[in-house]
Amino acid sequence: MGHYKSAGVPVSAVVHGLIARGNAARTDEDWAKAARYYSDALDQAPGLAHIWIQLGHMHKRLENYEQAMDAYARAEALDPDGEAAVEQGHVAKLQQRGAVALQHYLRAYRGARRNPDALRELLNLLERGTGMNREALTAALQGGKVNRPRRRARKVEGLASLTALLEQVEGLDLDSAQIAALQEARARIMDKAGQSAGDEPFDGHEIVFDASDLISYFGNARLPTGIQRVQIATITGAVETRPEGSVKVCCFSDQAASWSEVPLDAFMDLCALSLESGDRTDPEWLDAYTQLKIEISLAPALEFARGAFLVNLGTSWWLQNYFMFVREAKRLYGIRYIPFVHDFIPIMTPEHCVKELTQDFISWALGVYQHADFFLVNSQATKCDLIKVAGILGHEVDASDVAVIPLDAEFRSPDAKVAPTDKLREWGLSANDFVLIVSTIESRKNHIGALDAWLALIQKHGARQVPKLVCVGNRGWLNDEVYARIDQSPLLRSRVVMLSGLSDEELGLLYKSCRFTLYPSNYEGWGLPVTESLCFGKVPLLSDSSSLPEAGGPFGVYFEAGSTKELTAKAEQLIFDHAERARLEAKIKADFKPRKWQDVADQIGHEIEAFVSRTATAPSGDAESGLAERIEPVQFGAFYPIIRNFERRIWKGLGSAEIYRSGTGWWWPDDWGCWTKPNGGQLAVRFTDQKGPVRGFVQLHAPPDDVTKFEVAAPAIGFHLEGTLNPGEYRWIAIDIPEIAPVEGFHIRFKGSHSVDVSERTGGLDCRVIALGVGGFYFCHADDLVARANFIEAMTIGGLNQLAFNREPVIF
């Protein structure tokens, strides 16, 4: 027993062998074989909680949900504070038993370890509002929380102390100069706290930072990386330097159908905590994160100040329905929208991205050009791509409306704590005898080029003369060839080390100990590991693609992107020419001066202020009456499918009919069309060349389970229609417009009597409550018999895509 252990627990040789066979089968994704080996091991050693967990995982993979639940329950009995309770919650979700899942997650979170994954699930349930008792769930989440003073209160406490001191000056032996100094100190603190002496409300342009993706990041991680640091520093700097009331933070909630204001104090507390540690199980962190999410979920919808600037420093392409809410905020409040565009990877190099990512990103790109007033980008290369893609799509972006914010900041201080050098031996490495690549393992990063170069060097100089190649990064997409290349070559296996999941300290040790770094990527928006390498004084060997010459500047060594021959030659020089490498390192040490994160944040703040100063005063009006809505024109004789994007290429005229959705009564577009919410949704359309009566066609779709009574109305053109649809039925209805429609456009409202809670069918994975759906629409002049015949023919034979407004032009 003493010779073998599993997860630190002594086991017999037989049990150890069975577990090893199970692990091997799991690696080969043979779930059934792995389950048999784990089960056999547990027959002999039933006290191994971690193997019960593995057995549960295998049964879950096999969709043997009851057996998985039994295995997890056995694990929980052995280790009540382990992962078993949250795993039972996951299985219950798969079984579409939301109430059962909730109980498992609550038990996992109430345990001694306050499981952060259970917390994330519970907060998602609270945010989605799936019909449970919100007050009870809120109380359960807050139970046992230790109330700690808010960190930002220190400034207020200092102000209160000075105020109290000034009130007692008559009883103190202070001269006039000392009293004046106290008054000046109080004024400075008030100014830094963002307060004015007269406590007058702010009267100017409000800046609202969209922190949706930052808050989402905190649900899965704590210690911020590059872009999270930019967001934290920028928002903190704006709060500290702008007048009281001029800065807000918000997040986007599709379930709540609104923007939610994020409480500044709770947000700043969480950001401060995130910089202190990467420990997600720290009670203080869990309490702060829980409190922030609860306050957001219970907060009323955000009302923007008239003409506010909505700034998104992170990403939003993964947020469905995002631009519908930007559009509504523009209509109601006249906001101006400023996104930070980090790259155009899925459009510029779609061959290196999975299909779904490219499709979602193109959807975002179509929306960002239609809604952004100004842009922030991280490099001149990204700026060029932004303008180029705009031109391809048929949009025009003025270069002066794009500000470049280089991310040449100190990502990691070379003086920061690093892991002990013993870790190098654990990885089979020696200091100065390896070259480091830090990047996700995916095809765009061109690990294949690096492997081919290393193989050529090994064949030329011998394995012992060539430093090892250490690749640090998690698995991305399209990476099978990388692992296959290593597996098929004994020479590469002897000199290539693959590592993932490293701590900051471990990564710092690798940077400090490597001979130089390599970044052979085919395309980047900036290239954060290049800046990281320079911060550690290490020479980066880079491709000359996209933004990498900006990131490496005069300190990098460059090879032609895609040229393995040149990569090999440049790597050979850096490996064997010690004097040249030392010269380059000395140049980095002498001349490379990374900016502080606050410097990057300050630049962003200055650019935003510059955009603000160039912008005219916000349109007048009030939130109830709203502003003139921007309604896109409709082409006669063209079909407008309100579906998600399926394209993986772009062309002039490519667009999305989602922009005709008005208000927030819609869910996001699906493959077939778009569901409305129970209160109904409306389309906004406008004709620019109407010459007489118009005939329109709209496709309706009923939700499942029950008969739907529907109502379609367009009061501005005198149209009203009622009817019924069978469960799941698709039907085209006709809209006749005998008179000239309003030139400013009009709205068509859709309302259904029957709705379906999709969460009940998906175990809470999809929490929409759907009602009447709309697939698309088509308008033509009533007397245009050819257009009407084309539509009927296309509809009959399923060829409506040939009439789509955004179809790719055919070139002969």
TrEMBL record:
The protein's Enzyme Commission number: 2.4.-.-
TPR repeats: 49-82
Superkingdom, taxonomy of origin: Bacteria
UniProt GO molecular function: glycosyltransferase activity
SUPFAM superfamilies reported in the protein's UniProt record: TPR-like, UDP-Glycosyltransferase/glycogen phosphorylase
Domain Glycosyl transferase family: 433-588
Alphabetical UniProt keywords: Glycosyltransferase, TPR repeat, Transferase
SMART domains per UniProt: TPR (SM00028)
Protein name: Glycosyltransferase
Organism from which the protein derives: Sphingobium cyanobacteriorum
